[in-house]
Amino acid sequence: SGRLAVANDGKKRIHVFGPSGVCLRRFGERGDAGNDIKYPLDVAVTSDGHVVVTDGGDRSVKAFDFEGRGLLAVREGFCLPWGLDAAPKNEVILTDSEAGALYRLAADFRRGELKKCQMIRSRLVSPRAVAVCQTSGAVVVIEHLKARGPGKGSTRVTIFSAQMDLIGQMDSFGLNLVFPSRIHATAVAFDKEGRVIVTDVCSQAVVCLGKPEEFPIFNPLISHGLSYPVGLTYTANNSLVVLDSGDHSIKVYSS
């Protein structure tokens, strides 16, 4: 449909935009009712058109239709659900930052029925952003490593196959040895060709790191006009959408 869901810290937590940029709907007030969202950390849209949100406020995963009606809330066993991305077959892959784990959640969102919620990877370090390749099923996660000393810490890009075997891994220090600048990754996506794309808040850029089998290469896609890019996705027509919290805007780039 070309609709885009954005999580934000306003009075209504989820904004749904149409392809032209018009805000079609706002929902998810802060509170304790069934349709409320206390503190959204990430949002994704499933293939059958449902909006799934990780709520750090009550440590849950919540699903809504595009009208904002609450359909499902999953609270079982999460410490701090953070990033999520829609996978094929109405599944969602999500990170639990506090537990250091990756989960696969399957549901019939229309009926509000949870089918399974299964941990598929553990021993990660503060995993946050996550993306699923729609063609290969590969999964890429951004881990946030603790600082050794007074610095801000660094990030690590970790790629798994569809079977959850480790394919590639590189932290900010390792990437800095390969690339001209230090990368602090905040968001991640796969493009239509299966390449890993990250936002880098250090250089205020969007960078392509290549396909999992060639990771890492360094190809800056956007190097001007961003101030603090924190969100990233591709639309069905292969436009690149960047959420820029520096100037509170959504920026759309052609392929």
UniProtKB/TrEMBL annotation:
What Pfam families does the entry give? NHL
Kindly state a single biological-process term from the GO annotations of this entry: protein polyubiquitination
Record keywords, A-Z: Ligase, Repeat
Is this entry keyworded Ligase? yes
Q: Which GO terms describe its molecular function?
A: ligase activity; ubiquitin protein ligase activity
Annotated NHL repeat ranges? 24-67, 224-255
InterPro entries found in the cross-reference section: 6-blade_b-propeller_TolB-like, NHL_repeat, TRIM-NHL_E3_ligases
Checking SUPFAM superfamilies in the record gives: NHL repeat
Query: For this UniProt entry, what's an example GO CC term?
Result: nucleus
Q: What is this protein called?
A: NHLC1 ligase
